[in-house]
Amino acid sequence: MINATPQVVTIAGSDSGGGAGIQADLKTFQARKAFGMSIIVALTSQNTYGVQDSMAIPSAFIEEQLDSLAADFAIGAAKTGMLADVERVETVVKKLKEVDFGPLVVDPVMVAKGGHHLLQSDAVKTINEQLLPLATIVTPNLPEAEVIIGQRIVTDQEMIDAAKKLQDLGTKNVVVKGGHSQNEEAADFVLLASGESFWMSAPRVVTTNTHGTGDTFSACIAAELAKGVELKEAIIIGKKFIQAAISQPIFVGHGHGPTNHWA
Ligand code: PLP
């Protein structure tokens, strides 16, 4: 194949409202100029007011979607988002072990901002034990990192300790996102496999357009990895992309609006 176009896949849940999940991922892939594909694990009926309902896709059909893509495309990177429950996490893990989709970005999606559970709580253990060891990078926000390591995270030192604990679970590289902290700066802590670590800081943007921020950030990293960008650079591009996406609001819906994938 001559000069194959960068190809990237998201394995996640659909947001009918277009702001998060599969839809945010595909919009981000498009914005980053990578060809995006999707393996849908769950559906949500959702708008900017929140998630009204959700439904998991039968595992056999998740497997079929993955087989279809593996039989045809040269996928250069993948990301996971909403994985719904133990069964779906195990299905995705089993199938990811059968294929080479390149570097894997795991966004350990748990609860939507409105409170709807996108992952059943007993599936956290399955993610920790089975999915994180497959991940090139994991990108939890503070509440997700707290659930994964089972500890409160308040101070900078606790964020640093949390990243080390996440690495101990088998993920090579970690970003603990500080967007949910009370601080004026939204500082994320990055710990790389090499042991190198750094903070990524950006002024906190006062906005209600934050729906789908985590999905967009991790999708941007996956798109850059599919393009062959080195991981550290991909993480920094992800931070800049999400900062722009929340700084320039778009005006859709009446509730908690999405981020701006054109920014
Ligand atoms: N819906 C789906 C399908 C998602 O994957 C996500 C990702 O986190 C969300 C909703 C979360 O949206 P919010 O950013 O509003 O918490």
TrEMBL record:
Keyword Magnesium applies: no
Presence of keyword Isomerase: no
EC number(s) per entry: 2.7.1.49, 2.7.4.7
Annotated catalysed reactions: 4-amino-5-hydroxymethyl-2-methylpyrimidine + ATP = 4-amino-2-methyl-5-(phosphooxymethyl)pyrimidine + ADP + H(+); 4-amino-2-methyl-5-(phosphooxymethyl)pyrimidine + ATP = 4-amino-2-methyl-5-(diphosphooxymethyl)pyrimidine + ADP
Pfam assignment, any one: Phos_pyr_kin
The Pyridoxamine kinase/Phosphomethylpyrimidine kinase domain, residue ranges: 15-260
GO CC terms, sorted: cytosol
UniProtKB keywords: ATP-binding, Kinase, Nucleotide-binding, Thiamine biosynthesis, Transferase
Family indicated by similarity: Belongs to the ThiD family.
Name the record gives this protein: Hydroxymethylpyrimidine/phosphomethylpyrimidine kinase
Source organism of the structure: Enterococcus malodoratus ATCC 43197
